[in-house]
TrEMBL record:
Belongs to the metallo-beta-lactamase superfamily. It comes from Mesorhizobium ciceri. PANTHER family: QUORUM-QUENCHING LACTONASE YTNP-RELATED, QUORUM-QUENCHING LACTONASE YTNP-RELATED-RELATED. One of its GO terms (molecular function) is metal ion binding. CDD domains: OPHC2-like_MBL-fold. The keyword Zinc applies. This is MBL fold metallo-hydrolase. It comes from the Bacteria. Keywords: Hydrolase, Metal-binding, Zinc. Residues 32-219 form the Metallo-beta-lactamase domain. InterPro entries: MBL_superfamily_lactonases, Metallo-B-lactamas, RibonucZ/Hydroxyglut_hydro.
């Protein structure tokens, strides 16, 4: 991704002043794209699905990732979206046009973004299945939804609790982990409301650090799971 996707306060793009700790690949930012599977013993709840073949080809490798993890796509019973950007929703459909999850029973979309989802012509066959959710709702007995608006109108997190541990699957709260933990005021060009996105990021970083829970991020370096700890007035990410 271009460096200019990053925004300093005041909606100013970064230039040559990008901090040294941000490693570039061919002069570009490297952006991981992760999805997360929750196995409750009966089936799989999948959080986000990647882009399939709707954007860059490296954003559409969910089928290979499921195979690598030993997860049969037929066990996916529910798909939940943190938000409706195309690198999170188009994995419902395989590159050849077939359904990615043949036994899908539930499809949960942030209520504020249901209209965005239903505007995606390629996903038309799923429009009627989509159920809106809002912050505070629960999915089964182990997952509750945490508001994280800003990156998009209904951007949401999923907090999973099991065996005395918690993990916060936080979508696009952080795009560039080498920078935004240390400088959480830095936003992303595609944040629909940059001020609100900044406020949500600060709140969620503090929540994760103070609650000692794991976090899982769509754009954290693969595998995208770890812990957040406070570091002075800022934060630090400790990969799992």
């Amino acid at each position: 991704m271009p460096i200019g996707r990053l925004r300093q306060p005041g909606d100013k793009p970064f230039g040559d002043e990008l901090p040294q700790q941000v490693a570039l690949v061919g002069g570009q930012l490297r952006l991981s794209v992760n999805a997360f599977a929750i196995d409750d013993g009966d089936g799989i709840i999948l959080i986000d699905t990647g882009a399939s073949n709707a954007w860059h080809p490296t954003m559409g490798r969910l089928p290979e990732a499921l195979d690598e993890a030993g997860i049969d796509a037929g066990r996916v019973r529910a798909v939940c979206f943190t938000h409706t950007h195309l690198d999170h929703i188009h994995g419902l459909v395989l590159a050849d046009g077939r359904d990615a999850f043949p036994r899908l029973a539930r499809l949960l979309v942030p209520g504020e973004e249901l209209g965005f989802f239903r505007a995606e012509a390629r996903l038309e066959r799923f429009h009627g299945m989509a159920e809106p959710f809002e912050a505070g709702d629960r999915i089964g007995t182990h997952v509750d939804i945490v508001e994280a608006h800003g990156h998009e109108a209904g951007h949401s997190c999923f907090r999973v609790s099991s065996g005395g541990e918690r993990i916060l699957i936080w979508g696009d709260t952080v795009h560039v982990p080498s920078l935004q933990f240390d400088r959480p005021e830095v936003t992303w060009e595609f944040d629909a409301d940059q001020d609100q996105a900044r406020e949500s990021r600060l709140r969620l970083l503090a929540l994760a650090a103070d609650d000692h829970c794991f976090v899982a991020g769509a754009h954290l370096d693969s595998p995208g799971v770890g812990r957040v700890v406070r570091s002075g007035a800022s934060f630090r990410f400790e990969p799992l």
